[in-house]
Amino acid sequence: MMELKIKPKSGLKGQIKVPGDKSISHRSVMIGSLARGKTRISGFLTGEDCLNTLRAFQQMGVEVENFGAEEIVIKGVGLEGLSEPESVLDLGNSGTAMRLLLGILAGQDFYSVLTGDESLNQRPMARVTDPLSEMGAKIWGRDNANLAPLTVIGQQLSSFSYNSPVASAQVKSCILLAGLYAQGVTRVIEPAQSRDHTERMLEYFGAEVEVDGLEVSVKAKPKLEGQEVVVPSDISSAAFFIVAALINSDSELVLSNVGLNPTRDGLLEILTKMEADYELLEQRLVNQEPIADLKVNSSPLKAVEIGGAVIPKLIDEIPILAVAATQAEGTTVIKDAEELRVKETDRISAMVKELRKLGVEIEEREDGMIIEGPQKIKGGAECRSYGDHRIAMSLAVAALIAEEEVVIKNCDCIKTSFPNFTDLLEQI
Hints:
The chain contains 13 helices and 24 strands. By secondary structure, it is an alpha/beta fold. It has two domains: 4-20 and 232-427, UDP-n-acetylglucosamine1-carboxyvinyl-transferase, Chain, CATH 3.65.10.10; 22-230, Enolpyruvate transferase domain (UDP-n-acetylglucosamine1-carboxyvinyl-transferase, Chain), CATH 3.65.10. A hairpin with a 2-residue loop joins strand 16 (277-286) and strand 17. The radius of gyration is 21 Å and the shape is globular. The two termini are 25 Å apart. 53% of the residues are buried. The model has no long low-confidence stretch (mean pLDDT 96).
């Protein structure tokens, strides 16, 4: 298993482009496959999670040109064109792929089985299998269809109005994708707004989508047509280098083509409150997604409270924000983030344990953590990733400002979302 040995380094400089947005890459394959005609995708994330989504659709009869490249072509088969896979669909470590695919498979006229790695097969799926069952889906699995492997026998689905108990883009997207195969109009109402890539992309491909505050609806049986999709750089991946530049003295980085979707920009909202020195350059719009270049300079940060409605907009960035908080003046409180406990690992527990190994004083709470700052990162320790890419990369950023070298074990997981992370780290 790959391990990272990170030595302290100041003065991070350069211009880099982080990989394509994982959420948009997943959805471009899924919706492109359900459209008629070719969908050309540029900037596709070639991490293992997205490649597993590609493989799953190949198993269901979708042709893919240039598999594994950043420029791929999906030969869409239309809403009714998928075929029964001959073997189990293995989605590796991707909760997004499994939950969204369940919505699509629920309305097919065939049998399928979904599984994943040890981590994914312990992640809760009842949050989507329960509402899908109310639409008429037939899904079986461990713990009453809460845990994969999951068996799906496709059915004719009924339209549905679902009041989601959580603000989750995966839950919302699953129901909306199932709604493509239902009768009439399917609605999802959330307690707070989650990321809206699915709604934007469905509309871009020709679906009838309506957004009214926290309610999103989709009309069944749309005529989806293949499109050109430009995948912006993933702000969740950019976050590691943004924070690295902010907390590292004498640093100046420019990150190109970063996605600034308003349901994903919670990171920038919090960094603004922390008085971070950054600038948005060349703001523009591509396939209904806003993007810009991002210039970041070293900054003395201020502590803030992170909680409430902003949490769904930065849930994946909380581990790296915890690292930023160690260098912020005052007390940073992270709350309302219970969702972190059911990610690839329990990210609250993992970050607390590993930062303590680096000498950080940090208090664990059920829904988050409390961090006093600024603190010295002592280093000289061996840390664990828990098989979680965001934990591994967050610890790598912390190690850059440590007093001694830090070793991070089991870092193969980084390939799921950021295959060239170490290359870019060396480049700057």
